[in-house]
Amino acid sequence: MEAIELNALIRKETGKGPARRLRMAGGVPAVFYGPSAEAMLLSVNAADLLKLLRKREENVFIRLIIEDGGKKHEKMSMVKEVQMEPVTRRFYHADFYEISMDRPFTFDVPIHFKGTPAGVENGGELQHVKREIKVSCIPTKLPDFIEVDISGLNIGDHLRVSDVVAMDGLTLLDDGESVIATVSPPKAAATTLEAEAPEEQAEPEVVGQKGAKSES
Prior knowledge:
The chain is of the alpha+beta class. It folds into two domains: 96 residues, CATH 2.40.240.10; 84 residues, CATH 2.170.120.20. It is 15% helix and 42% strand. The protein is built from four helices and 13 strands. The strands form three sheets. It has a six-stranded mixed barrel. A four-stranded mixed beta sheet has the order 10-7-9-12, with no helix packed on it. A hairpin with a 6-residue loop joins β5 and β6. It is elongated, with a radius of gyration of 29 Å. The relative contact order is 0.13. The C terminus is likely disordered.
């Protein structure tokens, strides 16, 4: 489990004025909170936050080193939300959510596809429908990615969430029928099949019956 350190300071002043001055000085107003943590108003360095966001993967834990009156303490967290100013694209506010090492959380884990589908070798086209799977686990069990083997897919086959074997300690939350990947026919073949499909024809008219009256 990767954890990146980020220094933070307790923020004493609140309101728009102090927050604006903090941003002008290169800081970002932030807050740390969680199910068992009292909300803490923080400030972090904008350059440090940018560096962290640029190099972090899908799920990276952040070890906040919080300084308060000369004392430092650590809090494990994840970035919950980052707000940007719409015009300048500068950081406006950041939310850090508390992570407990023995409590399960919901994460989106990237999917890595392994192999070349048999259907692709026969001219089919691989389509990635999902690139992430939603899972539940404790942080220490969170994988960097979930690998799925697609080499056995033929044209017309689908790989579904139910086909994925969950790792130990991992619970898959997505619908088992959700399609992850499929191999479709070649475009030329699909176009030909569509062109050769019989057109719907109107029912033939029976001559002499339309508008006829009974002679009896």
